[in-house]
Amino acid sequence: MTTNTFLTSLISVVADLSTHMPPEQRYQRLLQHLRQTFPCDASALLKLEGRHLAPLAVSGLSEDTLGRRFVIDEHPRLARILASNQAVRFAADSDLPDPYDGLIEAEDSRLLVHDCMGVTLFIDGEPWGVLTLDALNAGTFDGIDPVQFNAFISLTAASVKAVGLISSLEQRVSYVTRTLNRQNAGHNLIGESEGMRALRNEISIVAPSELAVLIMGETGVGKELVAQRIHLESTRADQVMVYVNCAALPESIAESELFGHSKGAFSGAVSERAGKFELADGGTIFLDEIGELPLSIQAKLLRTLQNGDIQRVGSDRQIKVNVRVIAATNRDLQQEVANGLFRSDLYHRLAVYPMHVPPLRERGKDVLLLAGAFLEKNQQRLGVKKLRLDAGAKKALQDYRWPGNVRELEHLLSRAALKAATRGNRQSDIITLSAAYLDIAPDSPEGSSSVLADVSITSAPPMDFKGAVDEFQRRLVQQQIALHQGNRAAAARALGLDRGNFHRLLKRLAI
Ligand SMILES: Nc1ncnc2c1ncn2[C@@H]1O[C@H](COP(=O)(O)OP(=O)(O)OP(=O)(O)O)[C@@H](O)[C@H]1O
Ligand SMILES: [Mg+2]
Predict the structure, then answer these.
(1) pLDDT digits (tens, 9 = 90+) for 170-218
(2) Section 241-259 average pLDDT
């Protein structure tokens, strides 16, 4: 082979080996390249394990070779290769038995190897394993250029080392994931109401299965927490749960975020990149706010759920992934299906196990349990001995309708605790929160029924109905934004709207 052809083929080997693939496949591909570069009837990559060599990949040898272990003391040729730091070629008439005699898959009946060579692979100066080449015709290897052969062997060693680095990296990631997951496990779902007990029961049933789960419920009810619990109680708990916020994915990048892209797939794709599905391989993917996913991407997601494979943007290669899917939404997806905004086939795939997280106002005394947990957190954060609620505060919490659910409760208590702690109440070390601190007296602006009172339409008729409704909505929204000092999220909560809908409303009303 001319030097130029050799270099060109070496470059394509490197390019091929640097794509993402499991270790066994990488070793196998390496041997295929080896056989294309240096024609032979069989080759094998064997790893040194104590006193024997274990085949990691074979090409042209009968499949059972992979299960064999070659004890070095019983195979003098392998022993000779291991004893040398150069490539070793055996004479055609060598009387040393060949380890692969009878194992080469030849079309004719010749079973004895007549040309054989091998080389020890050194990684960081230590013998790591052996690469062997065999041919049935004597003299096959006469034409091998030793410089080219050595170059290929260095590449093989580098590739083997890369596999090792990648898998140790993966082990570390898995260790870190496990640790983080365990820490997260502290976040239990608080609540003893019937709804929460039923939910916990459902989680324990569905988690160990591989079923797709669709978690539904209003904003702030704890859907993400439920998704985490399902993952932690599943058999994949030691693997990652990859989080994807579908609402934050503009259509133009959604496909590449989810499925990855190949180099040059679009301007800006300067290098190859794995998508979230590949990152989640072996673990779970959490598709949050799935209702916001553009229709075009829904079709691609459906294909992945059906076939278990993905295709990076700009590549034809199908990559198999093993991912458990959990999705969440605060929309009424069935209604979205009826309106043609969500694919019904995808809905049925996702909702294999639908789960409904009840709103906080239906959980009775859970409000107080949750409040206790959040106050405890704030005590630590603010460095006070005790934060407690007086009877009025407890009643206010229970009477309120909680349009923003648990998240609203959490934020409200953080604000109240901070206010109380900074008002010089610290001396006593026990701080009692009264309803006044909570800012949710039933007639306060955040109380859902009272917001309507101060907004009226004063414009004189004639005014069309839609125009009047828009005008009313505009004033109501502006009033709430003003009442919350420009905090749109808080205004949305007060109006019982989720952030997505609130944003769309602002846009439509040109506020
Ligand atoms: N049962 C619960 N016990 C303890 N904490 C909870 C519970 N439910 C929710 N929380 C807390 O409330 C907050 C909001 O929960 P989460 O983010 O899971 O809600 P969500 O349903 O995903 O909301 P959204 O629809 O807005 O995304 C989080 O800080 C979460 O830890
Ligand atoms: Mg969420």
Answers:
(1) 767 766 766 666 666 556 899 999 999 999 999 999 999 999 999 999 9
(2) 88
* Radius of gyration in angstroms for the set of CA atoms belonging to the chain, rounded to a whole number: 33
Residue 19 sits at φ, ψ, to 5 deg, of -80, 165
Confidence label for 455 from pLDDT (cuts 50, 70 and 90): low
Q: Which of 407, 409, 497 to mutate to test the pocket of ligand 1 (most atoms within 8 A of CB)?
A: 407
Mean pLDDT score across all residues of the chain: 85
Q: Which domains does the chain have, with CATH numbers?
A: 3-168 (3.30.450.40), 186-358 (3.40.50.300), 361-442 (1.10.8.60), 448-511 (no CATH)
pLDDT at 181: 65
Q: Which position has the token pair 């909702």?
A: 351
Atom of ligand 1 nearest to the CA of 410: 12
Mean pLDDT of 299-304: 93
- Identify the CA nearest to 397 among candidates 384, 407, 412, 387: 412
Task: Decide: 403 in ligand 1 pocket, CB within 6 A.
Answer: no
Cβ 406 under 6 angstroms from ligand 1? yes
- Please enumerate in sequence order all residues whose Cβ is within 8 A of that of 23, keeping only pairs 6 or more positions apart, or say none: 163, 166, 167
Task: Give the H/E segment covering residue 129.
Answer: strand 126-135
Q: Which amino acid is residue 97, in one-letter code?
A: P
Any ligand 1 atom below 6 A from CB of 218: no
Q: Would you say the CB of residue 190 lies under 6 angstroms from ligand 1?
A: yes
Q: Is 220 in the pocket of ligand 1 (CB under 6 A)?
A: yes
The angle at the Cα of 449, spanning 454 to 363, to the nearest 5 degrees, equals 155
Q: Which ligand is nearest to the CA of 217?
A: 1
Relative to the alpha carbon of 193, which ligand is closest? Answer: 1
Residue type, 258: L
What digits encode the pLDDT tens for the residues 328-360?
A: 999 999 999 998 999 999 999 999 999 999 999
**Which percentage of the chain shows pLDDT scores above 90?**
42
Average pLDDT over residues 442-466: 51
Judge if the beta carbon of residue 330 lies within 6 A of ligand 1.
Answer: yes
Q: Which ligand does the CA of 376 lie closest to?
A: 1
Q: What is the mean pLDDT of residues 473-489?
A: 83
197 Cα to the center of ligand 1, angstroms: 16
Going by C-alpha positions, the residue among 337, 261, 266 that lies closest to residue 298 is 337
Ligand nearest to the CA of 220: 1
pLDDT at 444 over 50: no
Residue 373 alpha carbon, nearest atom of ligand 1 = 4
Nearest CA to ligand 1 atom 31: 225
pLDDT at 425: 61
Mutating to test ligand 1, I would choose from 225, 361, 408 the residue with most ligand atoms within 8 A of its C-beta, which is 225
